[in-house]
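debug: dumping io for the single-chain case to check the tokenizer round-trip. Nothing else runs in this session.
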Amino acid sequence: MMGLFIPFIIFTANYNNNMGIFDFFKKKNNRQENVSTPVQHYEMPEEKVVEEVVEQAVDTIPEVPSQPEEEKKVSEQYEKIRIYNDYIMYSIALQLRGDLAPISAFENQNGEVEGFAFMVTEEAYTLSAEEVIERMETKFENELNAGKIKSYMILYHSQFDNDGNHTLAAREGEFKAITLAYHFNGEEQDKIALPYIFENDNLTYKGFTEFSQEENNEIMNTQLVEGKNYFTNMEPIKAPEIINEAGIKVRKSNVPSLVNTWSGIFGHDSFQNNRSHSDDLINLLKECKANEPEFEKDKASKLEFADVKFKTLFNEEFGTIYPEIKTDFLLDFETKVISELENAANQEAIVAGPARDTFGVWFFATDYAEKREQYLAQPHLKINLSGIAFVLDAHVDFDLPDGTKMSEEFTTYMPSKDLPHYACFDFIGKIIDFKETEIFEDGRVKGYILKLKLITHEEMEDFFTIDVFVSKENMRFDTLTKGMKVAGVLQLQGKIAE
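debug: decoded output
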């Protein structure tokens, strides 16, 4: 699937100490261990301080010796926010390990500070960073107004470049600072930021310009306590779902992208490493949208081939192109669950339920955009089902641990361990028949259509024997033969039969 690309930051449920956070703060001979970023520098706003600390990693900033007779004055602003120093350092540690998720903390009425974060409970649904920040702010403002908390702070990555711009960073080139958005009871909301720069594979933190050298040093010298759970308050992110009038559960999903379906057509390595395939698809999508007379004359030859057709979809929010494997295979199906992809403007969906009143399947509905209302209202359908193989290998029968020999007719399929939310299945199947096929006028994409038996049924030969396309590049052996056993990973796709 090619189409609208919406950036999402994924938050993990594990905000405790096995995240590797403390790998960034353990000291050995006054230097960091296990820091994934090559060398981390901390740079003070004053130019003369830079040379003093240029060789230091994030964990330690040399402190200017204080004079016994002179008491250092702490600014009023720093005096307030210093209670959140642990979470400033936690945000830095997350960044060093490649995690740019917003985090937050709040001050209880008793003065204790606790962390708060949203927790992903399922891989198929999360929130954008913008949504997370909005929800955090709403939650804390309500609690502040109700007198439940004294203050809060939300930490996120922004476009701040000493210019007052605290807009959320969302794409490459925009990440310039960690913004601290905070609100103390009885005062105005405020924001300050810790700027950073990427230079020669190094990440340099520039320091808060609002704070003195000593105050910045105190922040950067803060040591997180190993064994402490800094996020004792977690709120699960749940996918919205309803049971509609037809008794179908309709769930929302926003993480899966079906763009890698094309790896099954062009071959995984070719699609990942050869930009020309993506360019071809983008150009086809543009030509279809423009619908010029010249293209219209050649449209069929560019989009429809012997065994595969390319389908396009356009609306105001979304444009995409995806492959559909032609098939006559038909089965009775009952829709139980529809997972609509919010990141595809709800124009794509994975549909799940029992087939032939016996076995369960779920498939990418290639006709969902045009037949969405029928899917939602009519649970009992006749479905044309086919598949695309991402991996195909020869299978050798094996004995079970108790010595029982596996039947030569044994076939099976099960939800993919790696791609459970993409209608993908691991399988052991039997090739009933096969033929070579080509895609594009010049035949540059070559593969096979397999008649693949996935369920062996004593009374019905084609009980679950589907047409599957496999690119020659995705095969781990050279020669196909009728009756051979194969194993691999495939994606099921289907459409309502005409």
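debug: round-trip ok. The two ends are 24 Å apart (CA to CA).
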